Amino acid sequence: MKKLLIVVIMLALVAAVLWYFRDRLRRADHGLKLYGNVDIRGVDLGFRVAGKLLEVRTDEGDAVHPGDLLARLDPQPYAHELARAAAVLAAAEADQQLKQAGYRREEIDQARAALEESRVVASDAERSFRRQASLVAGGGTSQQNLDSAQAASDESRQRMKVNEAKLKLLEAGFRAEDIAAAAAQVAQAQAAYASAKLRLQDTQLTAPSAGIVLTRALEPGAIVPAGATALSLSLEQPVWVRAYVPESDLGRVPPGTKVLVTTDGQPNKPFHGTVGFVSPRAEFTPKSVETPELRTSLVYRLRVVVADPDGSLRQGMPITVTLPPTP
């Protein structure tokens, strides 16, 4: 009985030791390898306006830099449009200045002189009427002459009132509504001018960022509709890697994790990367990176931003993402 007890205790000790080391081995971080593909972004470039293609300055395979001129449309129709818009804007601004400044001093002086003249005429007509009225009583003139004098006096007074109103109108200047309407016309003309200027600028197609020309879709002389693809560009930055991680290792690659990226052709030349995004949704491993043990596994997609690409990474290239072991 005593020997049996000793054997049981020894077996328990051995089991405890084995469990301890197995747990240590299980907990040890021997690094993590993930598989995926290079994901280089591209962009299809086209003109925002329609026109006749005048020049294409790049060809497939050419490297371009931000702001490089890649192609041009015939600018003449849009240059004429800009000139018309500039003329309309100048006319609207001149009309606004006129409305704000009011009537010219010469016009006001002319209206004042006309008023003075009408006052003199009205005064003379009034004296003539009174003279005729005094003569009618003594038979020195006819009733018809009196009526004519009265009509002339009334007409001269009305003309004087018209000239007074005209002078007040000129001195007051334009109404606030006229000035506001002129300002609105200027704003409308400015918008049309800015639009015409932008359309003229849009006859030039420039590179949005550094990259390589993949496709030259059009040739000079073609009539290009707005939005049609003229060139396709593969962007140099950013260079991303799509990789997939199983749920059991998901916690080891949070955003911000530093990793190494290698290709099959240059396994000894790692690139440095940072995990930038981890998908919140599980998916089956894509066939392009499928391994026998992961054919039916659910994994999570992550994106790695490569910090030091040298141009050797190509779209779709298979890669290995390595998470170095924790010391």
Helical percent range? 40-55%
Major sheet attributes: 6 strands, antiparallel, barrel
- Strand order within the widest beta sheet: 1-8-11-10-9-12
Radius of gyration: 46 Å
Low-confidence stretches: 23-29
Molecular shape: elongated
Give the N-terminus to C-terminus distance in angstroms: 48 Å
- Oligomerization state of this entry? single chain
Average the pLDDT over all residues and give the rounded result. Answer: 81
- Helix and strand element order: HEEEEHHHHEEEEEEEE
Structural category: alpha+beta
- Would you report the number of β strands? 12
Beta-strand proportion: 25-35%
Number of helices: 5
Description of the molecule:
With 327 residues, the chain is α+β, with helices and mostly antiparallel strands. Among the domains are: 28-43 and 238-323, Efflux pump adaptor protein, beta barrel domain (Elongation Factor Tu (Ef-tu), domain 3, Beta Barrel), CATH 2.40.30; 83-197. Helices cover 43% and strands 28% of the residues. It has 5 helices and 12 strands. The strands form 2 sheets. A 6-stranded antiparallel β-barrel has the order 1-8-11-10-9-12. Strand 9 (258-263) and strand 10 form a beta hairpin. The protein is elongated, with a radius of gyration of 46 Å. The two termini are 48 Å apart.
